[in-house]
Design goal:
By secondary structure, the protein is an all-beta fold. Helix content is 0%, strand content 56%. The radius of gyration is 17 Å and the shape is elongated.
Length: 196
């Protein structure tokens, strides 16, 4: 476990695995903290006005706080409630992880550029435990791909609806958007749903 890592100027690269809680600050504009190894965050604070970049595989759980955090590579998986937001410029967000449903919530904004990707799995009708869900309390700015797959042999009943992304407001859309043929994507004022 880490207690405090603070960068005041320049870039610090954490190549070894990081696990647990703790505070990771890039305290000033221009300071940067790069996580390149396996990162497991449970109740961690990624703070300060400098940039924090997640470049390796990251697993989140519990409650964490993010300020100026960019997913620039690897996967971002697990289930967590995150105070703050995230920019996905080059990684894959996959709530729960491969073959498991999960829910990731951001109280702030979520931005995805064309280099980022979201991978959603649906294996039932309950969000967070049977299908993946991302909740954004603020603005969702969308670009880049979103892929939806079924897990566990799931076949949705006609009329089923899966809210895979909720948001306070939205600009842009995922492109390309790939999903099983029985599902239709529907952007509403507050959510992206896939309807059977």
């Amino acid at each position: 476990n880490w207690e405090l890592v603070e960068v005041h100027s320049g870039t610090l690269v954490l190549t070894n695995p990081v696990s647990g809680g703790g505070t990771f600050n890039a305290s000033t504009v221009g300071a940067q903290l790069d996580f390149t190894g396996e990162t497991t965050l449970n109740g961690a604070i990624l703070g300060g006005s400098g940039l924090k970049r997640l470049l390796g595989n990251t697993i989140v759980s519990g409650a964490s706080a993010f300020t100026n955090v960019e997913l620039a590579g690897g996967t971002f998986s697990g289930s967590a409630a995150i105070t703050g937001g995230l920019t996905n410029s080059g990684g894959v967000i996959q709530p729960g992880g491969v073959g498991a449903a999960g829910m990731i919530s951001f109280s702030g904004n979520y931005t995805q550029t064309i280099g980022g990707r979201v991978a959603i799995e649906i294996g039932g009708t309950t969000p967070g435990t049977q299908f993946d869900q991302i909740n954004v309390g603020g603005a969702a700015t969308l670009a880049g791909p979103l892929d939806v797959t079924f897990i566990g042999g799931f076949n949705p009943a006609p009329g089923s609806s899966f809210a895979v992304l909720s948001y306070g407001n939205r600009s842009g859309t995922f492109a390309p958007l790939t999903a099983p043929a029985v599902l239709t994507a529907n952007y509403t004022a507050s959510a992206l749903t896939f309807d059977a």
